[in-house]
Amino acid sequence: MKRIENFFEEMKSHFLESDIDSFNEIKEDLLEQIEIQLEEGKTEQEILTGLGAPETIAASFYEDKRLDKALKAETDIIAVEDVKKVYKKDRKLKRKKQLKKVKTVLYVLLTALTSILVIYLVGFALIYAVQEKFFAIGPISLAIFFICILYYLINSLKGKQVIHIQGIYLLSIISLVLSGGIFLSGHWYYEGKYYEEVFELNDLEKNEMSLLSEYPVEISTIPIGEGEVPKVEIEAYLKKTDQKNLVDRSDNKTTLLIGKKDGFSPLKKMKKNEVIFYLPQNAEFNDFSFTINHGTVMLSHIQAGKLSVEIDNGEINLNDIYSDNIEIQSEKADTMLSGFYADIKIDNKHGKSILKEGQGTIDVTSKTGLINLNDLTSKELKVSNEKGKNIVSSSMLDLLTVSNIEGISVIEKQIGDTTIKNINGKLVLTDIQGSLKLENKKGQVIISEKDPLDATIISDTGIVKWVQNYNSTVAFNVSSKSGKVSNDFENKKDASHKVSIKTESGDIRIIQKNGKYEQ
Predict the structure, then answer these.
(1) Which residues form the DUF4097 domain (predicted)?
(2) For residue 243, which of 46, 169, 229, 421 sits 20 to 30 Å off, Cα-Cα?
């Protein structure tokens, strides 16, 4: 490097004091070229020979400066070739400076990101080595790989030559391959320490019971005989800090905390934990609540004042549940309830909600999920779905309210009053009894009836098709402002039921089904 420094000292002597800034810019560009050629294996002597004599570089600079000055003078005459030469050189210099700025910004961002990754990985390795006695070979080897990259980036930003480049390159490859091999072997992530415990649950008839888990968990119940003490059995993979905070008891509440996430969650893959409640079958408990991120909740033969489940993803299966109130909130969990007697409220955004053989006031909401309700008895049942599918069948519902935006709603063999609001979805109604009120915008409506009923249908542009058994005592009053109307049904003079259908521009078709009615 001494020979290079002497080269620039000699070149500097050929520049005027007023042009030192220009000299520094030229020096910076030449140093960048020298660094590239050194990395390619050229010697200092070869590089300096290729650059030319210092006085030649200085003379070329002053020649360009003279030409630039002449361009701005009115009396000088300059050859066209010289003008083109100066113009091209100036554009090349500007492009070079712009690319250099972009390269510098990119290197700074990569350096910052790599530094954060190194600190994150090393911090995880140190903390979990001390607290959990876990030697994180996978994260450590990945940290070494990023340290090698960081070393290269920092030297490049400083304009220094990377020393031992081949050794650094080899170390980075080895560390990356080692990290990948550990990942494929399934031992890269921290999975927790095995832990098991059984403890009694006292005074559940008076106290609240709450379970919280940010780790995967499977929850189930096993009935026990009268007189036996309720208890809970836990088999889990937890951190040591999680084990210490597993149970929290207060005067009127018991809380189980099955794992809590920390800032290193991306480096952990916790195994599924198992929690089993042993509960007397005929005993009535106070409040049960479950809040989990991912897992399975299977509860059966429970009598509780209130039961609530909040889950992001997984499965819920409730069977033979007697409760004043059941609340379920889910992002995407398949939910099934059967044999229940309770007022139920379910908000399941994208999962399946299946309810059968139950009684109580029911409210089910979804965005894109399936709602399937079968063999239910209720004073009031509400269904709201944006883009999913609704199925209501074989139920006795004093009041059924359905809100449908773009999904499909199928209602069959419903006994009671039915109210439906539909935007752009498809409605299929079969053999409903009671009364029907339907507001429709653009959706398609298909109704097939064996027995007569009173109905009022108002539609905008949606098509309405009604198929009625031929011997039904029904009077149809149909009209449309601009749609086609077709009525094949002969109104009975003594009709005790009336159907009114009005549309703006949607077509209306009333079809009489002759002969024996086919279910």
Answers:
(1) 221-383
(2) 229
Phi first, then psi: what are they for 471, rounded to 5°? -95, 20
188 sits in the region (left: phi over 0; alpha: psi -120 to 50; else beta) called: alpha
Domain residue ranges in the chain: 2-66, 106-185, 195-351, 359-519
* Cα angle value 110/116/119 (rounded, 5°): 135
Q: pLDDT, tens digit, for every residue of 498-517? A: 999 999 999 999 998 875 44
- β-bridge pairing 247-249 and 253-257: antiparallel
* Residue 1: pLDDT over 80: no
Backbone dihedral region of 208: left (phi > 0), alpha (psi from -120 to 50 degrees) or beta?
A: beta
CA-CA distance, 507 to 468, in Å (whole number)? 17
Structure tokens at 206: 């008076």
What pLDDT does residue 516 have?
45
Q: Is the dihedral of CA 510, 511, 516, 517 positive or negative?
A: negative
State the Cα angle at 125 between 213 and 235, rounded to 5°. 30
Confidence of residue 519 (pLDDT cuts 50, 70, 90): very low
Instruction: Give residue 195's identity as a one-letter amino acid code.
Output: Y
Output the pTM of the full model. Answer: 0.73
pLDDT band at 518 (very low <50, low <70, confident <90, very high): very low
* Beta strand ranges found along 105-228 (DSSP E): 193-200, 208-213, 217-224
